[in-house]
Fold each of these.
Amino acid sequence: MESKQILFFCAILFVFYLLRTTLLIIVHYIAYVLLIYFAWNLAFFLYSFDFVPKKYLGTKNRAILITGCDSGFGLGVAEALYARGFYIFATCLDTESLGAKKLKNLNDERILITQLNVTDDASVKKAKKEVEDYLVRHKDVSLWALVNNAGVMSLCEIEFGNLDHIYKQIEINCMGLIRTTRSFLPLIRHNHFGRGRIINIASQAGRFAMPGFSAYCFSKAMVISFNDCLRREMHKWNIEVVSIEPHLYRTNLVNLQRLQKEFDLFWNETDESIQNDYGRSYYEGFQRTMIYSLETARKDIERVINAIKEAVILSKVQPYYRIANKHELIRLWFWEMIAPIWLIDLLMRKLLTDCNGTPAMLTNRVKSKSN
């Protein structure tokens, strides 16, 4: 009897030890998470607080070339920098667009508006010639910075549609940016200031791949990689390269009416065999998921415009500007530095793929097995 009591007592002690150890592990884990959270908040506070007053560059005789001034970020940046006192070379795909007309109405010699299609070599050369002619007429003015803003976004899974929409996004978002940079770099290198800037508009999508946004994501990933290469190559010329990486904002890039037409076009361009594999029901679910994602786009585009403006006018700049609030930065840091790939894949499937429904081929396969 005594031996049974001793064994029972030992078992209780062992269970108590396990519970105590488990509780300590949980407490330590919670403390670790809280420590990281408070450390991040402190770091974000210190990062946000300007210990040293910002130093701004003078605007005298400095010209800024901005692509994609038809609307959105490009137009906003052109207006903000013009108000600051810079000379503005505003390029538009359509010189009769609302943005172009708005800038023309300023009726100021400090603004040059020119047509530019970043995918067309001849158009880029023509725009460069107009800028060079302007600089000849205004000998004291030099090109200080280039803001590559022109971009496009189409939403489609890799198998839907033909390759044209993928080529288009790569051509405009990446190759057009490279084409414009190569063309205007010599004007920046030979300016009167002995230094210069190139500001390229990338996206957080370039660092975080999302189903349905595939072509847009990898075109922006190319831009981020291009920025890193160019920044290191241009150091010898004292030309700084800055990557602006905003979240999804409500500009003409996120035009639901245009995207809805593209959805129908991409489905009609898809091979019939692939249509049969997925089924119309899945594709309609995909459309609903994409539209829901776009409805979360932000309206406060001034945050992005201010970041681009600061990348132009600050005396010292950072290589990356991520336009996000504290909680979004924590989330990005978690995804990039801590979260395992399987967890990221799982969440992406749940948020952007599984909610589309089950493809017709898989549904039919399950039915045939059950029969």
Amino acid sequence: SISEGEKELRDCLQHQLQSIRNNGEAVQSALKHLHREKQNMQRMKRETQMKIKGKYEALRKCIESEERRVLQYLESEKRRVTDDIETTISELENRKKDLEKALADLSDLLQQNKEVVFIQGLNSMEERIKDVSEPFVPLAPVSDVNKSVLEKLAAWVQAMYVAAPQSDPQRNCLVTVYGQTPTLDPDTAFPNLVLSDSNRTVSGSKREHPYPHSPKRFNYWWQVLSTEGVSCGRSYWEVEAGGDRRRWDIGVCYGSLSRKGEGAECSLGQNKKSWCLYSEPGKLVALHNNNTTKLAAESPCTVGVFVDFEAGIIS
């Protein structure tokens, strides 16, 4: 009947309304969560910004304090030397005036025609003539600037505040913001690789190490993976490789890299799942999917590895 049909439609509509209400509540809940996340992010940003500003403000104050001390020393040196020079200048100017006055008086005396007056004048000026006629003896040298101290001061400033920015600021930022300290996973190490007690260093050995059986262990390639993986964000770490006197491989791979057998699917840089930097004396190459790129650079002692997971960047 029409009544039954209407009731069925109303029930269906009520059910749809409830579904819409539930969706609305879910959306509202998601919005609240996102707003909270936004507020938390803003709060974290403010707190981090305050910390960063505080650090740089302290650094600025330190630099300004050092600058004041250096400039005060330079000013004191300038005053010391300048005062000595001005004192000497004043003495020499007075000496010059005495000589000019004596020269004028003697010139006038020579013009005197009366013998008695001339002799009397000469007698009265005898001591004065003797004084101004003495050979000029230069005054003691004025104080000199302490050049040794100034040179050391300039070298110190150069080392502290001029040479420092010439270091790698990008590396400093990477270490500070994204720096990781990975450890090596003994369950993946090839049997002839020996790990340190801290699992931070690895070296090769002619003898096999008695590692326990592990499905994750490489059984042909001399390789070992780190315990920590990268699954999001950005990460940076450094590896001390030993320079160009040794053969070494440093790489990044997916966790699904094969471990068993001697095929290319297990070797770093010889498949799509891995990237590798390979070095031997006189040679440095980058490898990926068995493609080799020779690098026109000396083998480094330290290799920095940067991974931006979302951007798909390895450098």
Amino acid sequence: MSSSANQRQEALRLAERRSNLEAELEVHLELLQSHGVTLNSALVDREGFPRADVDISAILEARARIRVIRNDLKTIEGNLARLLQDVFQTSGDDAQVYLNGSASTPDPFALVKSVDAGSPAASAGLHEGDKIIRFAATGPHPVPAESLQAVGALVQKSLDKPLRVQLLRRHATDDRDVMKLLQLTPTRWSGRGTLGCFLVPI
């Protein structure tokens, strides 16, 4: 099995582990919410006695587990970010790996303001609000485009050739970004340009 395939398998394994942890995290957060408390809410009354209106034992257990899960997720996210970077640079496959943004995530340079229906960008899965980290040609050792000017030049010479797009997308259920890798092929279509999306600098 190739190094790229091994990286893909490891990334998918970590992504699955991350999804399982996120599901468990949601359960514990919902438990806290059902008791009307947060990670930092006091569990004693004004006189210093344990509150009788909540299940203190369950809350303490949930809080402890939430902290462990968040630490585990932070480690997984860092490993996934590094793996995604390797896959992005070396893989020619149509890979899609969802990752959480972290301190090691490169800064995005462009925001997707709009995506035209039926366009190459829409077909590739690009969404309004996505934050672009880089464009690059497929194949070994691509030179990434990390500015709007560089993207324009790359797209112009890549008609009908797949490009890999690394981006951040806001998670659907919480206030976090996830990193995603898409394959987008500039193509002449019935609408404007060869991508069918409007990017603005960040």
